[in-house]
Design brief:
It is a single chain. The chain has 591 residues and is α/β, with parallel strands linked by helices. The protein is 37% helix and 17% strand. The strands form six sheets. Strands 1, 2, 3, 5, 11, 12 and 13 form a seven-stranded mixed beta sheet that branches.
């Protein structure tokens, strides 16, 4: 087979979907006429998630680099380019197709992940003199160090009665564009002045592909406080900080592209990276969660899609505008045109399971798992599956990475209640699985109580392969649960958008009907399990409100004590020898 991009030999047409997760990028080759996934490629980011020291050179530093404060989570933008250079050609080779038969490419990203750039799109960490400045790097979605700025945004918006605040459940997250941008201004004003654009990574990678900067309607609405054709006013921004008054006009505002549109055409440079034909359609960027809905054929009101990986994002269409407490946003056309797209989420899910297996499981369990030919997650799941509901005597609050919905407070932290000297690792592991299901039920009930009922529950992402976890979710929510028939839901969803951008389908609904994945496994709630979990959920709710709604502010006080202790520690000073750089690997794939 002649694999050159310039020779077309097939009658079929193909599109490429590229899914940028927390730790890796995945490319999938999809046939346009029926959505069949023909090949894939994966590239793990060399720098992963940078949380302790800035990278030095081409790899994470082991003995050098600027030390980062707590709650920081950065990435290196060139890792994203490498996905195009490595994963896309690997996917094409795996599919065995002629590159010349590819008609479009689309990408999705974790959000809100922000890239500060110069006017030509150069990330600031690649500009002269800025490689040692933490704020010059990508701020990953899970960067939570802007919580003080988010608190001020929320307090001022509530005081002024800003009309956009209820569209976000009454609270703006520290993960989002404005809080992170305000943090940059206040902590490194020189770098802020040098920055020309504050760009969602979802839009930056499209810029790299087609040479044109186009903001996508999804992240602009959900993460950029863009509602009814406008961002927050100059007066509001100036009240936060006089130097922030021009944030929208100077750093953010740009042409917004509708989902499924072509942002541009593949440049010669990007064609050389990917091995694809120059000039094919490049779709407007999107978010990994929202783009998965068409892949699951969940484009009608009431179909809730939970994309479960390191975190979980819950997305759903609705026919009417409703204000839902603690939702991450509601955006007109945020998932598909003509409907209101709702979003909620949990900041830690697979991350929590991964943290526990790394830090809370003794060596003999790892040894036993290896002897049985199992991964540690599989081994613990087998042990946990033998338990009756409630047998472990534990309740967990799943806030180890803060709470995204419905409390929208990343100062909250995880807690385990009920441990005794008899508690075993499999007890805690099962309680953690259940806690994330309780968190999802809290979100489902918030939607229902606000007039946005959940009619179907569909799961995508890396965690759907855990059958115990899926049955727990069905039993806890009381909803029939189906999994998406594709293990690459976001990448398939991106490919569907690429087909629309290339003109192969008139809209996302039509493309989803033809190219979306069939359902995978189906889990039916077991009545006796539902009743047992109803009782445990009441205990979860009591703890949820006690620690999360101001009844007891101990978690915030502990965070303050921790920050004060670290700020007075010589090890936390950048002038001291930096600690060993750490990049993180967690269970599951990003949502």
């Amino acid at each position: 087979m002649d694999g050159s991009a310039g020779v077309a030999n097939g009658t079929d047409k193909y599109v490429i979907g590229v899914d940028y997760g927390t730790l890796s990028g995945r490319a999938v080759v999809v046939r346009v006429r029926d959505g069949k996934e023909l090949g894939s490629g994966v590239f793990n980011y060399p720098h992963a998630v940078v949380t302790e020291t800035l990278p030095v050179g081409d790899a994470a530093a082991s003995d050098g680099g600027t030390r980062l404060p707590r709650e920081w989570a950065l990435q290196v933008p060139n890792d994203y380019r490498e996905v195009l250079r490595r994963a896309v050609p690997a996917a094409v080779a795996d599919a065995g197709i002629y590159p010349a038969d590819v008609v479009g490419i689309a990408t999705d990203f974790t959000a809100c992940t922000m890239v500060p750039t110069l006017a030509d799109g150069t990330p600031l960490n690649e500009a002269d003199g800025f490689a040692d400045r933490p704020h010059a790097y990508v701020k990953l979605w899970r960067h939570h160090a802007a919580q003080p700025q988010a608190d001020r945004i929320n307090a001022l918006a509530a005081e002024r009665g800003e009309s956009w605040l209820p569209r976000y459940g009454g609270l703006i997250s520290s993960e989002w564009e404005f809080a992170k941008g305000l943090q940059l201004l206040e902590e490194d004003p020189e770098l802020y002045a040098a920055m020309d654009h504050w760009v969602e990574a979802a839009d930056w990678i499209v810029w790299q592909l087609c040479g044109d900067y186009v903001r996508n309607a999804c992240t602009a609405g959900y993460k950029g406080i863009y509602q009814d054709g406008a961002y927050p006013s100059v007066e509001f921004l100036a009240a936060l900080n006089p130097e922030f008054a021009g944030f929208v006009s100077d750093k953010v505002e740009h042409r917004i592209g509708r989902l499924g549109e072509a942002a541009g055409r593949l440049t010669a440079e990007a064609a050389a990276w990917t091995g694809l034909p120059e000039g094919i359609a490049v779709a407007v960027g999107n978010v990994d969660a929202h783009v998965t809905a068409p892949a699951a054929r969940a484009v009608e009101p009431g179909q809730l899609v939970a994309i479960m990986g390191t975190s979980t994002c819950h997305v759903m269409n609705g026919s009417e505008l409703r204000e839902v407490p603690g939702m991450c946003g509601v955006v007109d056309g945020g998932i598909v045109d003509g409907l209101w797209g709702y979003e909620a989420g949990q900041s830690g899910v697979g991350d929590i399971f991964g943290w526990f297996t790394k830090n809370g499981v003794p060596p003999e369990y790892h040894q036993a798992a290896a002897s049985a030919g199992l991964g540690i997650h599989e081994y613990l799941t087998q042990l946990a599956a033998t338990q009756a509901i409630g047998e472990h005597g534990l309740i967990v609050l799943d806030w180890h990475s803060g709470n995204r919905s419905v409390l929208v407070d990343h100062e909250l932290s995880g807690i385990v209640v009920g441990q005794t000297l008899a508690t075993k690792p499999e007890d805690t592991y099962r309680a953690l699985l259940e806690a994330t299901a309780f968190g999802t039920r809290t979100i489902v009930e918030a939607f229902r109580d606000s007039g946005v009922p959940v009619k179907e529950f569909i799961v995508a992402g890396g965690l759907l392969k855990n059958r115990l976890l899926m049955q727990i979710y069905a039993d806890v929510t009381g909803l029939q649960l189906s999994t998406i028939g594709s293990r690459q839901g976001p990448a398939l969803g991106s490919a569907i958008h690429a087909a629309v951008a290339a003109g192969e389908y008139p809209d996302i609904r039509a493309a989803a009907a033809a190219m979306g994945a069939d359902p995978g496994d189906v889990y039916i709630p077991i009545p006796e399990n539902v009743a047992a979990y109803d009782a445990l959920f009441e205990e979860y709710k009591a703890l949820h409100d006690y620690f999360g709604r101001g009844t007891n502010d101990v978690m915030h006080r502990l965070k303050a004590i921790q920050r004060n202790a670290r700020s007075s520690s010589p090890l936390d000073s950048a002038a001291e020898a930096p600690a060993e750089s750490r990049t993180e690997a967690t269970a599951g794939v990003s949502a």
